[in-house]
Specification:
Layout: H1 4-10, H2 21-28, H3 32-39, H4 45-51
């Protein structure tokens, strides 16, 4: 299962939207820093918590 941020990164960039984390974040309604973290491989807090149980 993927979180919203990972899905935004996996999708193609819509026409008229810049291929930057900031533009994708604004278009998807999420934080740009979170998109950057997902792109670098950092898991979400929920995924990290599940892996520690």
């Amino acid at each position: 299962m993927f979180d919203k941020e990972s899905l935004i990164l996996a999708q193609d960039v819509p026409p008229g939207i810049s291929n930057s984390y900031r533009a994708r974040a604004d278009h998807g309604g999420v934080a740009a820093s979170t998109l950057n973290h997902r792109a670098l491989g950092r898991p979400s807090r929920k995924a990290k918590a599940q892996s520690q149980q």
